[in-house]
Specification:
4-stranded antiparallel beta sheet, 13 strands
């Protein structure tokens, strides 16, 4: 019995053990459970001037990691489920007491754009409501602001936004995005805000996306 034969026999034994262990791991998946794959996910691209946090189906998905960065793009992947309820809080960088930026010297402007997958995009079909307005009448000398209480469950699937107005679309030339915006896929999406891009500072957007007949390829059971 030569060394080559012993080596090949040992290698075959190791491969057999590896295959057996892999089969045991696969058999640990309960019947009826189908795990999702990375190929089931879709990309989400978000740009907000200045900041946002994003909920999908009542769950927090993404938060802008920089509090005051008007030209920051955030990209994540999600596992989509439909119907899909999207809720976003977007903030311009105005001081809470004056509505002004940069040491109370400037009136800022907002802007928000989002794309999920290939066809879920921001446009005038989204609902929008402002909760912080100012400075009232653009008065920088004696600035005053108006705040509305933000509902605790504004991101919930069953939140009633039926009385909210539709979002207002803005041209890219009005919002003037910079940074990595031009390098990111926002094709088909529109910049949105309320009707006052300059003085409305805290906006909540909501959108429900239906996919009649959609069923997930995966099944992970109760979570």
């Amino acid at each position: 019995m030569n060394i080559r034969f012993l080596f090949l026999a040992a290698l075959a034994f190791v491969l057999l053990l590896t295959s057996h262990a892999q089969n045991r791991r696969e058999s640990n998946t309960p019947d009826g459970i189908v795990k999702p794959r990375l190929s089931d996910t879709v990309p989400v691209n978000v740009y907000a001037d200045n900041w946002f946090k994003l909920y999908i189906n009542g769950k927090l998905v993404a938060v802008d990691s920089i509090d005051f960065m008007p030209h920051n793009v955030i990209s994540v992947d999600i596992l989509p489920e439909y119907p899909m309820t999207i809720a976003v809080m977007a903030k311009d960088g105005g001081n809470a007491e004056t509505g002004l930026e940069y040491n109370n010297s400037n009136i800022g402007d907002g802007g928000f754009i989002l794309k999920i997958g290939s066809d879920i995009v921001t446009d005038a079909s989204w609902k929008a409501k402002n909760f912080f307005h100012g400075p009232i009448n653009s008065d920088k000398a004696s600035p005053r602001v108006r705040h509305l209480e933000i509902p605790e469950n504004w991101y919930a699937i069953d939140f009633d936004d039926s009385s909210w107005e539709q979002a207002t679309e803005y041209a890219e030339s009005v919002v003037r995005p910079r940074g990595t915006f031009s390098e990111t896929d926002f094709e088909g999406a529109k910049f949105i805000w309320t009707g006052d891009l300059d003085l409305d500072n805290t906006i909540i957007f909501r959108k429900r996306v239906e996919r009649p007949g959609w069923t997930p390829r995966w099944n992970v059971g109760e979570r």
